[in-house]
């Protein structure tokens, strides 16, 4: 006897997906670069809002969560843990004014590579996936580490920034749950293509690149 499963989204799921769509629209309404150094004079609130004000960091954080969700356990949690851990390393280098070449290019590249990984449904081995995310984490951390000494309350700013980054990872994981719906995989792959295209746009807009 064949059972027919009801795969129609519930009203609660539809409401949740509308929230996700609103988040994505908010992403594209933000500034294209989160590393201008503007608006970093405050404490916790400034740190929390700063990742949301730049398309590059925001898309990379969400993409880490989406890619981890598509790869499944243990990478669904390993990637969002590896990124902030190495971001701390990059941040320390930035605070210490240790030079790191091509930081902004590396950040744009992170958006492109992560987007393409989602778009191609790349089942990267755990070591490679964690390695990619870790390297990009250093670039993102270094860019923000150079801004940290400019803040009025560096510790509070850093705490707000880390919490905001973690929430963006969780948002990406939540979006990745779409893969369980009919044609969810296609939707996620399309979103990866959009993210990669945004990364190319960010890179093309950098001085001396276009």
Automatic annotation (TrEMBL):
The answer to whether keyword Lipid metabolism applies is no
UniProt-listed InterPro entries: HupE_UreJ
Q: What is the lineage of its organism?
A: Bacteria, Pseudomonadati, Pseudomonadota, Betaproteobacteria, Burkholderiales
Question: Which residue ranges does UniProt annotate as crossing the membrane?
Answer: 44-68, 75-96, 102-119, 126-143, 155-178, 190-209
**Pfam families in UniProt:** HupE_UreJ
Q: Which UniProt keywords apply?
A: Membrane, Signal, Transmembrane, Transmembrane helix
Per the UniProt entry, the signal peptide is 1-34
**UniProt KW Transmembrane helix keyword:** yes
Q: What is this protein called?
A: Uncharacterized protein
């Amino acid at each position: 006897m064949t059972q027919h499963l009801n795969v129609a989204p519930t009203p609660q799921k539809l409401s949740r997906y509308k929230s996700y769509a609103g988040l994505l629209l908010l992403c594209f309404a933000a500034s294209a670069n989160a590393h201008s150094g503007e608006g970093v004079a405050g404490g916790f609130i400034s740190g929390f809002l700063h990742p949301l004000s730049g398309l590059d960091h925001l898309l990379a954080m969400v993409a880490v969560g989406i890619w981890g969700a598509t790869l499944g356990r243990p990478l669904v949690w390993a990637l969002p843990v590896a990124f902030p851990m190495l971001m701390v390393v990059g941040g320390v280098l930035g605070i210490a004014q240790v030079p790191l070449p091509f930081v902004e290019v590396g950040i744009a590249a992170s958006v492109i590579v992560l987007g393409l990984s989602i778009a191609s449904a790349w089942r990267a081995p755990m070591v490679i996936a964690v390695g990619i995310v870790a390297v990009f984490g250093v670039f993102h951390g270094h860019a923000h580490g150079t801004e940290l000494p400019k803040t009025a309350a560096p510790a509070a700013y850093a705490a707000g920034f880390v919490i905001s980054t973690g929430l963006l990872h969780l948002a990406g994981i939540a979006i990745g749950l779409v893969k369980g719906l009919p044609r969810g995989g296609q939707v996620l792959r399309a979103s990866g293509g959009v993210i990669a295209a945004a990364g190319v746009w960010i890179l093309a807009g950098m001085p001396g690149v276009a």
